[in-house]
Write a structure and sequence with these properties.
With about 160 residues, the chain is an alpha+beta fold. It is built from 4 helices and 7 strands; from the N terminus they run βαβαβββαββα.
């Protein structure tokens, strides 16, 4: 059971982070992209954040799109609100887009959003190129994390 039902905080400056990404994928490379948002989405990001857990990015018609990222509706904009799960266009340079498209063609690679943040007043998303982990890899990662924790405990008790 979780301790006291506390929710983990995001890093300073981050609107949302995808902590499941490092557990589910072996992250190879990261890229920064802008997001084309509607006005209510920007306000909702600033107040309520977003959920990246099931999100992914993909190519469609030569453009990069972000799918399954949930940005909750903005309360005060009752009627003029956005669709929380709509696909959002990612803004990248053509050279970057071509490079990423070439790497996606490799077998088993996918683009995963790892965090959303604001830089100079503009919403940015960090997307990572990742390869899905097998169940064995996940168990090994848990085992390594537990051994590190045990070593730190022993080190703390020694002092």
């Amino acid at each position: 059971m979780a301790k006291g039902g506390r929710k983990r905080k995001t890093a300073p400056g981050d609107v949302a982070t995808n902590r499941q990404a490092t557990y589910r994928y072996e992250l190879i490379d990261t890229y920064e992209a802008g997001i084309a948002l509607q006005g209510t989405e920007v306000k909702a990001l600033r107040t309520a954040g977003a959920q990246l857990k099931d999100g992914y990015a993909g190519l469609r018609d030569g453009e990069m799109w972000l799918y399954n990222v949930h940005i909750p509706p903005y309360g005060p904009a009752a009627r003029e609100n956005h669709d929380p799960e709509r696909p959002r266009k990612l803004l990248l340079h053509r050279r970057e887009l071509d490079r990423i498209a070439g790497r996606i063609q490799e077998r088993g690679l996918t683009l995963v959003p790892t965090r959303i943040y604001f830089r100079d007043g503009r919403a940015k998303v960090e997307i990572a190129l990742g390869r899905g982990k097998d169940r064995f890899d996940k168990r090994q990662a848990i085992r390594e994390r537990e051994t590190k924790r045990d070593i730190e405990r022993a080190r703390a008790e020694a002092y």
